[in-house]
Amino acid sequence: MFELHPKLFADTIPLAEWPLCRVLMMNERTYPWLILVPRRADISEIGELEAADRALLIEEIARLSGIVRARLSPDRINVAALGNVVSQLHVHVIARFKTDPAWPRPVWGAQPVVPYSDGELDRQAGLWSAALE
């Protein structure tokens, strides 16, 4: 049975349920940061997914990247499945701008996480949810 990892549950806001993945928004205002989590139990690596799910994951990554590009026009979209801290398979899709504080380095550990204010969190989640439909 699929259960979202407690750290992902604590650090994100749910936005949508796609055919394979739950789409989440990271509570981090410095970078527009979304996460795809395949709803499959006990999977930690992309290669552990069945072939059809691997193909669907790539399509959902492409779909989400296209939505991010259309909404924000970033200089770059970073896509990563690290799993060093949270072993549950999840894929980060992060809009990057040459003006962001970590550019051109990765966002992880570049600076402390800056969560959204309550009102801004709700506003951003609403905007992303609408864009994901």
UniProtKB/TrEMBL annotation:
Source species: Magnetospirillum fulvum
InterPro entries linked to this entry: HIT-like (IPR011146), HIT-like_sf (IPR036265), HIT_Hint (IPR026026)
Species classification: Bacteria, Pseudomonadati, Pseudomonadota, Alphaproteobacteria, Rhodospirillales
Keywords from the named record: Hydrolase
Molecular-function annotations in GO: hydrolase activity
Hydrolase keyword on record: yes
Keyword Hydrolase set for record: yes
Residues annotated as domain HIT: 34-103
Pfam families: HIT (PF01230)
Annotated protein name in UniProt: Diadenosine tetraphosphate (Ap4A) hydrolase
